[in-house]
Structure formats: structure tokens, C-alpha cells
């Protein structure tokens, strides 16, 4: 997202927001309908909030709460970037990151209570995670020319060890949150910086590109697969993983890409 918004050839604002809306909602609504077919949920007024990803909506699709943060953060980020010149936008997000860092630290240390309040949505941990994502993109673009494999591999191994240790602590523990935020940011920064210099063999690049294209579908349909296959044995989990990946790649190639291309083309005509 950082590369898309801060590049010199970024799309016009109308196209950016259209692409974000269609990308998030089209597949989300498909997953929601499929979930209702296999495990019907109560249809009442609150369903509208779920359909539109309104904050604090009933998360019938277990991962939909995170899509709310994604939706509003992308639109807020886009608005700032398109309204402010590049350096001013970067300065704004730096100040925003500092404010979030202070708020999260005060909350986790018991100094303030923000759970359930608008402050949690605007300055809480999940917004902090997204801002760290922007920071990783910025840092990756700075260090990619000097990054070396001798640094990347040990750094990634240490990072994965630290993340594993983080799961030992409660999720609201300050150290755990720090490792779950800072460590992944460093992993993304180092790995993407190295990736910018690495020419993968075509077959391997093709494989990972397909998985990357289907990653959003995998994220959405995994909870549905978990409902269809309710067992929790190792075999059940392997089946869920394999079936989710296979189904998501199929949906992405056969439906999502074509449908998004068609929808966006129709919407783009409105701006002409």
C-alpha cells in the first residue's frame, strides 16, 4: 500500500478508492453468502452493519472485524495522501504513529482504558499495526539497495523465534504486543527489501504470484472451511488448509479477477 500510494505513477484518487471498495467488498460478500448457506445466522437489523463492515458489527465471518480496520484505514490513508504533498503526508503518518504508540503503551500499562471507545478504533493496537505496515514500506524502499542475504536470513530466523515466544504471553501484554507489531514490521521490511533485488525463477515466481493473488480469498474462505470441516485434529486442519488454498485460487482465477475487471470498468465510466 505504501508503494502504491507514494509512487509517482499512483492511480487517480477515484480509481484508487474504487479499486479498494471493490476488492474488499466483492469477495467479502461472496464469503458471507457462502457462510450463510452452510451455517445460517440470524438476519436482523444488525446484519446491515455486518454487510457494510460498520465498526463493532456482529462478526458472523470471524475475520470481518479486521476488514473494518482495513477498509477505513485505507480510505483514511488514501485521503491524506491525495490531499497532502508527499513529505507532508509522511510527516503526518509519523506523528500519527507516535500518537498510536503512546496510546497503546498507556493502555497496555493500565494507565488509560480505551476498549470499546472510538479512541481504540482511531489510536488502538490494530491501527498501530497498519501504521507499522506503512513504516515498513518506507524503510524497505530506503534499505533495499544495501540489504544483503547474510543479514536477511539471520534476521528473519530471529524474528520468527521472537514471534513464537510472543505467543507464550497474554495478548494484552505490552511485551507481546511489541513483538507482534515491531518484529513483523522488521520481517516485512527486510524480506521485501531483499525481494526487490532477487530475481526468482519464472516457475517459482508464477507459483507465489498465484498464491499472492488469492491471499485475500484464502483469508476470507478459511473460516467458512472451518465451519464445513468442524474437526480440529491435525488431519482436519491439513484438509482445511489444502481445500481453502485450492478453492481460493480457483475463485480468484475463475471469478474474482474477471468480476473485478468488469465491475471496475463499469464504474470507471461514471467518471468520464
Structure, briefly:
76% of the residues lie in helices and 0% in strands. It has 272 residues and is mainly α.
Describe the structure in your own words.
The protein is an all-alpha fold and 272 residues long. The chain is 76% helix and 0% strand. The chain contains 12 helices and no strands. Helix 2 (13-38) packs antiparallel against helix 4 and helix 11 (215-228) crosses helix 12.
Give the helices and strands, then pairings.
Elements: H1 2-6, H2 13-38, H3 46-52, H4 64-83, H5 86-108, H6 118-123, H7 125-143, H8 149-166, H9 174-195, H10 202-213, H11 215-228, H12 234-268
Shape: globular
Beta-strand portion reads: under 5%
Q: What is the structural class?
A: mainly alpha
Sheet of most strands: none
Q: What is the helical fraction, as a range of percent? A: over 70%
Gyration radius (Cα, Å) is 20 Å
Low-confidence stretches: none
Secondary structure: number of strands: 0
Strand/helix succession: HHHHHHHHHHHH
The number of helical segments is 12
Multimer state:
single chain
Ends apart, CA distance between termini: 26 Å
Mean pLDDT across every amino acid position: 87
Structural descriptors:
mainly alpha, 272 residues, 12 helices, single chain
Amino acid at each position: 500500500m505504501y508503494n502504491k500510494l507514494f509512487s509517482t505513477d499512483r492511480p487517480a484518487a477515484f480509481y484508487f478508492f474504487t479499486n479498494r471498495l471493490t476488492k474488499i467488498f466483492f469477495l467479502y460478500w461472496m464469503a458471507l453468502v457462502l457462510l450463510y448457506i452452510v451455517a445460517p445466522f440470524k438476519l436482523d437489523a444488525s446484519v446491515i452493519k455486518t454487510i457494510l463492515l460498520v465498526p463493532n458489527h456482529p462478526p458472523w465471518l470471524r475475520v470481518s472485524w479486521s476488514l473494518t480496520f482495513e477498509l477505513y484505514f485505507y480510505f483514511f490513508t488514501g485521503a491524506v495522501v491525495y490531499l497532502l504533498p508527499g513529505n507532508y503526508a509522511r510527516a503526518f503518518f509519523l506523528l500519527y504513529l507516535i500518537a498510536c504508540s503512546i496510546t497503546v503503551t498507556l493502555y497496555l500499562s493500565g494507565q488509560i482504558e480505551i476498549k470499546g471507545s472510538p479512541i481504540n478504533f482511531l489510536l488502538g493496537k490494530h491501527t498501530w499495526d497498519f501504521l507499522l505496515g506503512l513504516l515498513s514500506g518506507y524503510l524497505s524502499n530506503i534499505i533495499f539497495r544495501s540489504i544483503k542475504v547474510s543479514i536477511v536470513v539471520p534476521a528473519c530466523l530471529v524474528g520468527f523465534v521472537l514471534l513464537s515466544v510472543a505467543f507464550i504471553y497474554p495478548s494484552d501484554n505490552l511485551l507481546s504486543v511489541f513483538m507482534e507489531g515491531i518484529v513483523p514490521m522488521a520481517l516485512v521490511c527486510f524480506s521485501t527489501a531483499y525481494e526487490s533485488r532477487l530475481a526468482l525463477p519464472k516457475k517459482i515466481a508464477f507459483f507465489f504470484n498465484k498464491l499472492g493473488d488469492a491471499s485475500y480469498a484464502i483469508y476470507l474462505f478459511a473460516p467458512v472451511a472451518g465451519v464445513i470441516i468442524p474437526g480440529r485434529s491435525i488431519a482436519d486442519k491439513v484438509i482445511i488448509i489444502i481445500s481453502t488454498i485450492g478453492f481460493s485460487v480457483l475463485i480468484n482465477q475463475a471469478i474474482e479477477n474477471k468480476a473485478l475487471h468488469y465491475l471496475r470498468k463499469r464504474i470507471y465510466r461514471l467518471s468520464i
